[in-house]
Specification:
Elements (H helix, E strand, L loop, with lengths): L2 H13 L4 H4 L19 H9 L18 H12 L15 H11 L3 H13 L8 H9 L21
Helix pairs in contact: 1-3, 4-5, 5-7, 6-7
């Protein structure tokens, strides 16, 4: 799971609902010095989370290609919710997209809504995966987004579900 997905989710959590479109725009220009040019599509979001003291001290020190760890996610959710970070058994373990969705949905207090999505889909006869509810809520709220289609084949953008 790459950090840029988390950046997008953090931006959405910080901005939900009203101001997101205005603040998450292009941000203008090329990536700042030291930032990876292959991440130019997410530079505005990276700058935003850095400005809010999340995930890195500077844009140049943001490690977009590093996997997000359970410990980092716990710290991040604690910072977003203004609560102490949750205790994590294995802080170095990587975070999956499924785990990211679930943590963010819970942080927003929307676990019941996610469960309702899953239950209603199953009641309608659909065979949906267990992650269906949290993924649906995360996507509907814009808590995460897919990377640009042109980068679909890049191994640095693959995540474990």
């Amino acid at each position: 799971m790459r950090r840029f997905l988390t950046v997008l989710a953090c931006c959405a959590l910080l901005l939900v609902p009203a101001a997101s479109a205005a603040r998450l725009g292009d941000g203008g220009g090329a990536p700042k010095s030291g930032a990876s040019s292959k991440l130019s599509w997410a530079q505005a979001q990276i700058r935003y989370v850095v400005q809010h003291g999340l995930m890195a001290k500077t844009v140049a020190s943001f490690r977009a290609d590093d996997p997000l760890t359970q410990g980092e996610l716990a710290t991040l959710v604690g910072g977003l919710t203004k609560r102490p970070a949750a205790t994590v058994a294995n802080k170095a373990a990587p975070v999956t997209v499924r785990q990211l969705d679930a943590r963010l949905v819970r942080a927003l207090g929307l676990a019941d809504a996610a469960a309702t999505f899953g239950a209603n889909a199953r009641a309608a006869g659909l065979a949906v995966p267990s992650r269906f509810g949290t993924e649906t809520v995360a996507r509907l709220l814009g808590l995460r987004t897919n990377h640009p289609a042109a980068q679909d084949t890049s191994s640095s953008f693959r995540a474990t579900r």
